[in-house]
Amino acid sequence: MLEKLKESLERSDVVRFGEYQYFVHPITDGIPSMDPKVLQEVLDRMLVLGDFRCDYIVGAEAMAIPLMVPLSLQTGIPYNVVRKRKYGLPGEVSVHQTTGYSEKELFINGLKKGDRVVIVDDVLSTGGTLKAMVQAFKLMGVTVVDVIIVVQKTDRLAEMEAELGQKIKTLVRVEMRDGKVRVLS
C-alpha cells in the first residue's frame, strides 16, 4: 500500500535549515514535479482513511492546497485555505504558528461557530501548524471532525493527539537518518 509514495519519499533530497533536516518532495514542497500516480495514490488513501462528514476541507497554504482541491472535487465538499496573509475580512481570526524552522501568523476566514471541518496537510513534524489551527478552531467553536496528514515525521504522535484532544491519521511515517529519508510504515 502506498508503494509509489514510499519509493518517492526515499528518493527525496534532504536539506538543512540550521539543525532542522528538511526533505524536499512534491507532496511537501511542490518540487520536483509531481507524478500524478503518486498524487492519486495519496488521494485514494485519504478518501478511504478520512471521515468527510463535514462542511469544509481545511488546510494551511501552501502545500495543503494541492491535496484539498482534488479532495473537494471528489467529495463535493468546499475547501477553505488558512492563509499566511492578513486580508482584514469581517470575522478574520489570526493565529500564531511556530514550526521547526519558522514562526508566522496564519489567518482564518470564512469559518464560523458550528462549522465542521476536516484538516488535511502534507507533513507533521513539530505539530506547530496543526496545533495552531486546532486551537483556533476550538476557540471559534468550529468542530474538527478529522485530521489527515500525508507524512508523519515525528515520533510524538500520541503526545500530540493527547495535547490537542484530537486523533491524527497519517498515511506514512518517516525518519531522517544520515541525510536520507527512511520510510518506517
Question: How is the topology of this model organized?
Answer:
Elements: H1 3-10, E1 13-17, E2 20-24, H2 26-29, H3 36-49, E3 56-60, H4 65-75, E4 79-82, E5 93-98, E6 103-108, E7 116-124, H5 128-140, E8 143-152, H6 157-164, E9 169-177, E10 180-183
Parallel strand pairs: 3-4, 3-7, 7-8, 8-9
Antiparallel strand pairs: 1-2, 5-6, 9-10
Polypeptide structure, described:
There is one protein chain. This protein has 185 residues and is of the alpha/beta class. It has a single domain (33-173), classed as 3-Layer(aba) Sandwich (Rossmann fold). Helix content is 31%, strand content 34%. It has six helices and ten strands. It has a six-stranded mixed beta sheet with strand order 4-3-7-8-9-10, sandwiched between helices. A hairpin with a 4-residue loop joins β5 and β6. The longest helix is centred in the N-terminal third of the chain and has 14 residues, at 36-49. The radius of gyration is 16 Å and the shape is globular. The termini are close together.
Number of structural units classed as domains: 1
List SSEs in N-to-C order: HEEHHEHEEEEHEHEE
Q: Care to count the β-strands?
A: 10
CATH topology: Rossmann fold
